[in-house]
Amino acid sequence: MPAVTVALIKSLREQTGAGISDCKNALEDNDGDLDQAMExxxxxxxxxxxxxxxxETSQGLVESYIHTGGRVGALVQLGCETDFVARTAEFRVLxxxxxxxxxxxxPVYLSEEDKAEGDDRPAAQVCLLQxxxxxxxxxxxxxxxxxxxxxxxxxxxxxxxxxxxxxx
Length: 168
Description:
Blueprint: H1 6-16, H2 20-29, H3 34-51, E1 59-66, E2 72-80, H4 83-86, H5 89-105, H6 123-126, E3 132-133, E4 136-140, H7 141-152, E5 157-165
Antiparallel strand pairs: 1-2, 2-5, 3-4
């Protein structure tokens, strides 16, 4: 069993943003394996995020994205629990990435639950949360929101989004 060193704990903390004791415990539980410890922290974060899903998201920010040439743009309201989280780099990057996704992929609904009855288009085409992320097709927008919620320790959700394009 490899020793859990301060350098290993520091490395895991830098990669995940988790607390020092959480990193130490994850490394000890996974025999010093950095990858397994990271996955363990990620699962733990997702479980905690799921428990916070019913919390109010009255804080957050509105992010805009205007595509080069100014012919397509998007506005996104991303909610969280505190203004502290709304000011973090991770939260701002998520809001910007979602606005880019809206501009590029033109979703109609937020999730499959919002889909109109009789709309037989695939959810991955018209539902924002089910769409593959434009920067990494192996993840969906729902995955990105869950990851940010796990990282920040707060409930994070997309409140509203709108896409505007010339001629539409």
